[in-house]
Amino acid sequence: MSATDSATQQDDNDSGLAAKNPGKRRRALLIVVLVFVVLGLGWFLLWLLVFSKRETTDNAYVGGNQVAISAQVPGTVVAILADDTQRVDAGQVLVRLDSTDADVRLRQASSALAQAVRQVRQQTDSASSADAAVAARRVDLKKAQADLQRHLPLLAEHAEAPEVVQHLRDGVEQAQTALDAAVAQASASHAAIEGTEIAQNPAVEQARANFRAAWVAAQRNAIFAPVSGYVAQRSVQVGNSVQPGQQLMTVVPLHDLWIDANFKESQLRHIHIGQPAKIEADVYGGGVEYHGKVVGVGAGTGSVFSLLPAQNATGNWIKVVQRVPVRIAIDNQDLDKHPLRVGLSTDVTVDITDDRGPVLAPSPAQTPTAETKVYDQMAAKADAEAEKIIDANLSRGESR
After folding, report:
1. Where are the domains of the chain?
2. Which helix (H) or strand (E) covers residue 230, if one does?
3. Most confident option among 89-103, 294-308, 349-363, 386-400
4. What are the backbone angles phi and psi of residue 59, rounded to the nearest 5°?
5. Contact 353, 53 (CB under 8 A)
6. C-alpha to C-alpha distances, 111 to 31, 216, 273, 348, 394, nearest whole angstrom
7. pLDDT score at 48
8. H or E element at residue 79
């Protein structure tokens, strides 16, 4: 048998087998179709139950407060008490300035306050003396008037010389003039102290305010940390001459951090305030998950607030999908377990199942975003020091 005859016989055999097994081909095709249908149905259910209930982005970064530490008074740096990466507590001294000039001004203000209290005390005593002088002049006037009244009947009976009676009349006038002068003097003495105690006298209050300013200025030679956190970007050196407002370092609180997640504008449709979110930080990989919630949506896209905003009204315009920052607060308990740093990259997933919350904040915030009481304590101490000086210069038993 030739090769050609063998090939022809093989083709006939294959055709016969195919003709005998048409069901196998249909079953194989049906299985393939069913697999694709199942895969499509599974993908649809996955999208319907999972992907359609969340919005995700990897364009998200950790944000936090960066508190700039600056000088409030001019001076020369004599000590630096905190360095980069170190933790500091609110009220802790970070930098000290030379306090020689401030101490001199404080001593001057202290002496001025003490002198003001003593002067007001002296004015009070002078007013009391003036009141006593008024009382004495009243007695003199009554005595002169009584003498005149006794001699007037004698003058009518020609038993007294007219010169004597005239002399008594002149005495009454002189006593009245002396009384008027004493009353005016007493009024002038009371004008400086009337209506207030010594400690509330305007002169004392002015001296107290000057002392308070000098005391606070002296304390500001020690630059305090207004909040607790970690030092970064220290630029100050010992011996530097610093001016008010000059930044010396930064304190970054690593508590109460947030995420600025930049979602595409097409993703914002169902993102609302109050929705829960899950965050994964690149620094920990996928093994650590943070919990948070949406607290606000930015008022504009990032390009609007850039230094050079895009000019879209041009002939060569290309549409670029914009992104809007969404602020997400992080649970502090998660931050305690796994600390984050400002600026780290994260992946954010927002659960949009419940989209009934507001898109924009409905009312102003009722609590401060951040606050410090360090400077309130300084003012209270200044007042306490002023009170000590006032008390020390009041006479024993003197009313304040």
Report:
1. 1-40, 101-200, 258-306+316-374
2. strand 229-232
3. 89-103
4. -90, 70
5. yes
6. 102, 16, 59, 63, 14
7. 60
8. strand 75-80
Cβ–Cβ under 8 Å, residues 277 and 60: no
Per cent of the chain over pLDDT 90 is 38
**CA neighbor of 294 nearest in space, from 265, 324, 261:** 261
The C-alpha atoms of residue 244 and residue 217 are separated, in whole angstroms, by 12
In angstroms, the CA 164 to CA 161 distance is 6
Q: Residues 300-334, buried b or exposed e (16+ Cβ, 10 A)?
A: ebeeeeeeeeeeeeeeeeeeeebbbbbbbbbeeeb
Q: Distance between CA 303 and CA 326 in Å, rounded?
A: 15
**Whole-number Å distance between alpha carbons of 233 and 215:** 30
Whether the Cβ atoms of residue 134 and residue 182 lie closer than 8 Å to each other: yes
> Are the C-beta atoms of residues 355 and 272 closer than 8 Å to each other?
yes
CA-only gyration radius of the chain, Å:
46
Average pLDDT of the chain to the nearest whole number: 81
Question: Any bridge partners for residue 105, and if so which?
Answer: none
The β-bridge partners of 57 are 348
Beta bridge partners of 223: 95
At the topology level of CATH, where does 258-306+316-374 sit? Elongation Factor Tu (Ef-tu); domain 3 (2.40.30)
